[in-house]
Structure formats: C-alpha cells, structure tokens
Amino acid sequence: MDQIIQSNKIKNILIYIVIAAVALAMGYYFGSIVGKNKIAQESCQTMLKEVFSGVDFANNLSGNILEISSDQKSLIIDVPRVLSVNLPKEYRQKKVLLSDNAKIFLIEKKELAVFDKEMKEFLEKQKSIKNISGLFPPVPSTEKEIKVGDLKIGDSVNVSFSFGPGASANPLDAQFTAVRINIYR
Q: Which residues contact 17 (CB under 8 A, 6 or more apart)?
C-alpha cells in the first residue's frame, strides 16, 4: 500500500512539473508576441492599469536620470519597475517637475574605516547606558544638500513626491512633482 501511495506522489510531482513547464513555455511564447500584436499591447496596457488602479501607491519612484531640462526645472528619469513590477518601455520614462521647495540630497557611502569606528563607539556607548531608547546606530552613508546643477545624466535617483490637490497617485502617470530627490553615487 505504501508503495502505491509513494508511486502516486511521484507521478503527481512529475505531472505538476510538466504542467509548469508547459505553462512557462506558453507564457514565454505569448509574451514574446505582445510587442508585435496591437491587440496584445492594448490588453497589456489594460492589465497594467487594472493592476495599479487600486494600489496604495507609495509616493516615490526610483531610476536613473536620462535628461535634465535646460531651465533646470524638470528631469526625465527611467523607472524600470514600480512595486516590484517591471514596467513596459512606454511607461518607464517619467517627467519629474522640480518645485521651488524641492530638496535634492547627495547620498554617498562612508568609508568602511569611518563607519567601523562609529559602530564601535555606538556599541561601547550602548553597553554603558541603561536606557537606550534615544540611542540610534550610525548609518553607513552621508547626506548633503546639493543643487540641480550638480545632477548628472545617469545618476541613480529616488524621487519622493506629494499628491496634492488634483494630483494622481497612479504609478503609470508620466509626470510627477518632486518634493525630495535622493541622488546615489
């Protein structure tokens, strides 16, 4: 009886593997024709809009700077994914408007020796203090405010924005107004 149950388990596992392989192959095949078929493209766009329509969207986007406007009032950034979903090419470029009160910060990694020293000091302080509720560990990076003129094409960027009156919270939108921009180098 145990041998029959064991052989059925093996058969079921093999069937599941075959089904998964067929489904993967079909997905790959049909996914490759999406770019060639207008109806498939439209259904893909509809699906993306449905996926993101009810999402409680965080107010930030990450990507790389593609273009800085000559008047330095906007950026074009490439956003490859939102909420772990890879975006199609037509949704990847976002225009980021720079409001007058937008802050831009350069985030750079600290040297390892400096961070190690800060961490050792933190651990020593932590041992000597009974109430550590107000004690925070050091961060491995530095942050300094910079100007739009300091930005470079290709910089890694994280843009925080506000929704404000009449603004949309849909990550498929093509334009956002920045409140804070973090540049990573």
A: none
Map tokens 């975006």 to a residue: 87
pLDDT of 4-57, one tens digit each? 666 677 777 778 788 877 776 676 566 655 555 666 666 666 666 666 555 555
Mean residue pLDDT of the chain comes to 80
Contacts of 152 (CB under 8 A, 6+ apart): 65
CATH topology of domain 58-184: OB fold (Dihydrolipoamide Acetyltransferase, E2P) (2.40.50)
- Per-residue pLDDT tens digits for 92-115: 899 999 988 889 999 999 999 999
Can you tell me whether residue 60 is helix, strand or coil?
A: strand
Strands 175-184 and 93-109: parallel
- Under 8 Å CB-to-CB from 158, ≥6 apart: which residues? 60, 61, 62, 181, 182, 184
Q: Is 142 helix (H, G, I), strand (E, B) or coil?
A: strand
How many other C-beta atoms are found inside a 10 Å radius of the C-beta of residue 182? Answer: 19
What are φ and ψ of residue 87, in 5° steps?
Answer: -90, 145
Q: Are 62 and 157 in contact (CB under 8 A)?
A: yes
Domain boundaries, the chain: 58-184
Here the tokens at position 140 are 């491995």
What share of the chain in percent tops pLDDT 90?
34
